[in-house]
Amino acid sequence: MVKKKIQVLFEDEHYIAATKPSDLLVHPFKARSQDRRSLLRSLKKQTDLYLFPIHRLDKPVSGVVLFAKSKEATRLMKEQWNSENVSKHYIAMVKGVTETEGVYDFPIKTDKGLQEAKTSFKTLTSNDEYSLVDIEIFTGRQHQIRKHFSRRMHNLVGDTKYGHSSINNIFRKDYKFYRIFLHSYQLRFIHPFTKEEVIISSPVTEDCIHIANDLFQFDLTNIGNEAKEN
């Protein structure tokens, strides 16, 4: 089997960003994990670079992931990661009919304890059962989007931890969809070294585009196709 090449979205002397497929860990950080494949290892092998992960996406989630090429670049980016210098945008499908727009601003429990978390969203379209939402997170907590929406009874489609098995089973049966309907389509930040704004975009995956077209007649094709860097 030929391994698919990792899509590099942005690269300069300090950072590199790539699209994470929904079947890969970002980093095999769990000692108990039997899956030795990861985006970090694949990208290192592909680029022959030693890389430092800035953040993570859950394994069943796809989209933009940023890596640094040095400890100093890692430190500087992490210092501003939860500031107004960085914005992170996602597309998700959730259970139920969401409000036109809203903000979830309440703490969530993580492996570091109770942490403040803020998530905003705008509804792109809804039917009687599901909604497509455009999300921005202002913090980067563990499972933040999944926890915020589940607490408001808008569980993400495909989420086996915080979602509904009955809904997930429908999508597995009808669409062969075995992941979370969550895609990180854009990352914006002020570059710590150049002080210029960088915009990195990752097109929504074909499986999510197909479901959105089928259930809502809504085209997600152009989301994440913006300029990949400023």
From TrEMBL:
Record-listed E.C. numbers: 5.4.99.26
Function: Responsible for synthesis of pseudouridine from uracil-65 in transfer RNAs.
Enzyme class, first EC level, given as a word: isomerase
Keywords: Isomerase, tRNA processing
Domain Pseudouridine synthase RsuA/RluA-like: 14-150
Name of protein: tRNA pseudouridine synthase C
Organism: Halobacteriovorax vibrionivorans
PROSITE patterns referenced in this protein's UniProt entry, alphabetically: PSI_RLU
Catalytic activity: uridine(65) in tRNA = pseudouridine(65) in tRNA
